[in-house]
Amino acid sequence: MSTDQTAVAEPMLRRLADLPSPKGLPLIGNALDIVPHLFHQKLEQWSREFGAYFVVKLGARRLLVISDHQVIAKNLRERPDGFDRTQRLAETWKDMGLQVGVFGANGEVWKKMRRMAMSAFDPAHVKAYFPAMIKVTDRLESRWKKSLGSDIDLQADLMRFTVDTITGLAFGHDVNTLESGDDIIQSHLDKIFPAVHKRNLAVFRYWRYFRLPSDRALDRSVAEVNAAIDRFVAQGRERLRQHPELRQHPSNLLEAMINAADQGDSGLNDNDVAGNVLTMLLAGEDTTANSLAWLLSLLWANPSTLATLQQELRSKLDGETSYSIDKLNDLDYLDACINESMRLKPVAPMIPLQTLKEMVIGDVEVPTGTLVFNLMRRDSVEDSHIPNAAQFDPQRWLSTSEAAQTAGQAISSVKRISMPFGAGPRICPGRYLALLEMKIAMAMLLTRFDIDSITAPNGKEPEEHMAFTMAPVGLKMRLKLRK
Length: 483
Ligand code: HEM
Prior knowledge:
Layout: H1 3-6, E1 14-15, H2 39-50, E2 53-58, E3 61-66, H3 69-77, E4 83-84, H4 87-95, H5 107-120, H6 123-146, E5 152-153, H7 154-171, H8 177-180, H9 184-201, H10 213-242, H11 253-262, H12 270-301, H13 303-317, H14 325-328, H15 332-344, E6 350-355, E7 359-361, E8 364-366, E9 371-375, H16 402-406, H17 408-417, H18 431-448, E10 449-455, E11 464-467, E12 469-472, E13 476-481
Parallel strand pairs: 1-8, 3-9
Antiparallel strand pairs: 2-3, 4-6, 5-13, 6-9, 7-8, 10-13, 11-12
Protoporphyrin IX containing FE binds next to helix 5, helix 12 and helix 18.
C-alpha cells in the first residue's frame, strides 16, 4: 500500500478572495445594498444565499461574515488574544469625543476596565441595589395604573423603567423619568447609539472634514453627557469621603467602580471610571428595554404561553408582600420564556470583531486585522439546528419537559446555539442584572394587570429596527386591572 493512500487528507483552506460575495459596485462595493437599520437582516439574508462564510465589501473595507454558531462561539472565546472589538468602533467612539469604557476598550486597558466593571457586578453588590429596583418597579406599576384602558407606548415606558433602574444603580441618582417626565441626560444619550451604528457603517467619514447640523447636535449631546458624568463621579467621590463605610458596602455601581479604581495596583483613574459609567448607561438601557418589549410581543402572539406564564407567576407570587431575588430566581417558566424570546429576537444580532493575528477561522485563512462579523441568530432560527425553530416554544428550555426527555440532544443544543449575551471572556457582565430587571418587571405586570392588547402598526408583526441594538417598532399595549 502506498503512503499516499494511507495519509489523512489535509483540509483545503480557503482565503478571503475565494469566498462568495454579493455583487457590488466598483469602489463602494455593497454599500448601496445597506440600509443601516436593516443591516442585520441583509447579512442574514445573504448568509442564507451564500452560506456560513461570505465577504461583504463596504468601500475599502472587507467584512468576513460568519454564521456557524460553533465557529462564532470559538471566536468569542478567543479573546482577548485572538480578537479585539473593531478598530473602527474605537475610532468612531473617539471621533465622537466619548470616554472609552469596558465595551469599546481593547488589550491591557480592557483587562483593567473589565476588572473594575466586574467588581461592580459582584452578587453582594447587586443584592444591595435590589431595593432601588423594587422602588422603580413600583413606580412603573403606578404609571401603568394611571394608563388603564388607553394606549401605552410600550418601549418608551420600558426605557423609562431601565433608565431609572440603571441611573439609580450607576449613580445613586434618582432621575425618576417614570413620574417626572423626560430626563435631560437621557435625551442626549438617546442620540449616541444610533450615531455610533451609522458612523460605523459609513463608507466615507465626512464628519472628519465638515459637520452637518445633526453632527453639531450630536457634539452638543456628547458634551452634555460627559459633563454630567464628570459631575456624578465628583459627587460619588464626595459621598465616599463623607461615608467611608460605603467603601465596604457600595450602594451603587459608581461607588463600587471608584473603590476598584482606588485599589493600589488598579492603574485606573477617574476618566476610566467615567468611561465605564457611560458604558453602563449605554449598554444597560436599550438592551434590557428592547428585550422586554420583544418578550411581551411574542407572549401576546402566543396566548396559551402567556396564560401558562401568568399561572406560574400568580401561583408563586400571589400573597407575597414584596419581591425577593430568591423568589424571582425560582420562576422556571419565566426563565424559559425570556431565553426563548432572546433566541428569536436577540437585541445584539451581530457581534463585530477584528483579528489580532493571522489565523484560520473554520476553513478560512485570514490575515491580521480582518473584520469578522459574527451573525448571532442565523443558526438559532434554522430547523436544521433547532426543531420548529420559528415557533416561540419556551418548553424547549425546560430540562424536565417531555420534549427534553425525547430530544435531549436538541435541548442541550439550544443552550449552546443561542448566545444573546455573547460568550467567553467578554460575555455581557450585566446579564444577571438585566435578567433580574426583566423578571421583576414581568412579575409586576402579570400579577397586577391583565393584558388587553399589544399591537404593532397596521396590525402586523413588529418590524425590527437596528440602531446598535435591535428594537421592535411602534408597540402599543393596553392594560386592565387584574380580574
Ligand atoms: C437583556 C439585556 C442585555 C443584553 C441582551 C446584552 C447583550 C450584550 C452582548 C451581546 C454583549 C457583547 C458580548 C460579547 O462580546 O461577547 C454585551 C456586552 C456588554 N454588556 Fe450587555 N446586554 C444586556 C444588558 C446589559 C446591562 C444591564 C449592562 C450593565 C448595566 C450591560 C453591560 C455590558 C457591558 C459593560 C458589556 C461589554 C463587556 C466587555 O466588552 O467586556 N449589558 N452585552
